[in-house]
Amino acid sequence: MNIDEIINQLTHPEDVTDQFYPEDISTNQVSGILASFSVLFWLPLVIAKDSPYAKFCANQGLTLFALEAVLGIATKVLGWIPIIGWIVSLVACLATLGTFLLLLISACQKKARKIPFIGNMIQAFQ
After folding, report:
1. What is the per-residue pLDDT for 72?
2. What are 17's strand-pairing partners?
3. Beta carbons within 10 angstroms of residue 37's beta carbon
């Protein structure tokens, strides 16, 4: 993967909105917004357990939760190394903030966008 592909993936995340009925997205938009807050990834499964869009949002929220956990561990492990620790911490903070904003803005716009690079990793809720 070259730098152009990486930049394209970050600036144009995969949009899968057309896989869902517009009524489903409109009805469950709040579920998508709540799933953006990673600790609340499970809430769409309670609010709209039969909605494919809500399950998609729950999967993306769970992926964000896992990303935060992995980056948190990496930050703790490498945090004691002066310059490397600071860089890892900054990258982890920017990555989680950017991913959170992507999911939140997508849900507010009634879109279904996957997290770049790792959006397909977790498909726990089908």
Report:
1. 93
2. none
3. 15
* Per-position DSSP letters for 13-78, written without gaps between them: PPB-GGGS-HHHHHHTHHHHHHHHSGGGTTHHHHH-TT-HHHHHHHHHHHHHHHHHHHHHHHHHHH
Instruction: State residue 11's pLDDT score.
Output: 86
Q: CB neighbours of 120 closer than 8 A, spacing ≥ 6?
A: 114
- pTM score of the predicted model: 0.89
Q: Which parts of the chain register pLDDT below 70?
A: none
Structure tokens at 5: 């592909």
* pLDDT of the residue at 117: 87
Are the C-beta atoms of 12 and 115 separated by less than 8 Å? no
pLDDT in tens, 38-54: 999 999 999 998 999 99
51: nearest Cα among 26, 16, 33, 18: 26
The answer to whether 25 and 57 have CB atoms below 8 angstroms apart is no
Q: What's the CA gap between 32 and 37, in Å, rounded?
A: 9
Q: Tokens 């579920």 label which residue?
A: 31
